[in-house]
Amino acid sequence: LNSMNTCERLFSEKACQTLMLNDKKEAWELDKVVNLESWIDRPFRSITPTEVLERFNVYQKTAPTRMQGGSWSPMIRTPDVGFKFAQSAFSWIIPRKHFENKGELINNPFNILTAFEKWSPVGIRTRIVDFNEEEEFGTWWNAALAYREVNPVASDYILFSLLQGGRSIEIVDLKWEQVNFKTNVVTYLDTKNDLDYVFPLSKLGVEILKKRKAKNSKNSIYVFEYPASETGHIPFNTYHFEQLEKFGAKIVTSHDMKRTFASAANTLPYKETEINYLLKHKVSGVNAHYFTKNKKLINSLMQDIEDLFVKTVDSFNASQAAKV
Question: Which of 235, 248, 276, 283 has fewest C-beta within 10 Å?
Fold first, then answer.
């Protein structure tokens, strides 16, 4: 669904603020604004490979809505996702029109991006806050806590994302009806692999949610209520994660938090199936009844991960205090 929304945005009428490399070719700076026409209502047969290539080239130089780490850099993944989605849509419709119209030949105009090797290479993402690096993890954790003075909702959202090993799309719009304080569990509905998951809450996880419950408006729907947002919940973007850099932390995203969570889980003496459940990986035998059958074990794993994080932070803070 998010890919579909991205695709629609890229092919709607749009004013793109493009970037250019400075004279020394060392940094990106703002260039001209390029206006793109909407393709949403165009007959799909009228879209040509040349037009696809030209539009993609504009997006490859388009600035994101905000600077990343204090500097500009073009969007990369967003145009790839949107144009890949459009390519798939054409690949779906072409054989059907070929059948309906007795052999009509239609070429997929988006294939030109493959011919010109325009797709960005997909690398293995390794960016995490390394909890094995005491200073790195301790600094990041303390920055997240310090950010409460600036934005307590965002701070709680960031820490809760780590403690649950959750994806942004699962947590930003988390509702109170999904939280059960009697059993201390959260139910994530229709996750990325199309399954529902019942998740235990660690001690700090419970503490964060109870604080949100107390601080939110009386009839709030969302856990991370955010009146300044049109949706009513904290926005789905990386802005608040980036703000932690001002407190000395490494810039990471919600998905990087998931990798940190996975890295910690894999250091503990638990079975791969149990860890895969917490990572919401689709695995044979792990179904809706898995948590019910293994509740005590999964609870222990979740708390052990939190304890590992807290121990690392406590050790870092103790070492810092000793230097004073």
Answer: 248
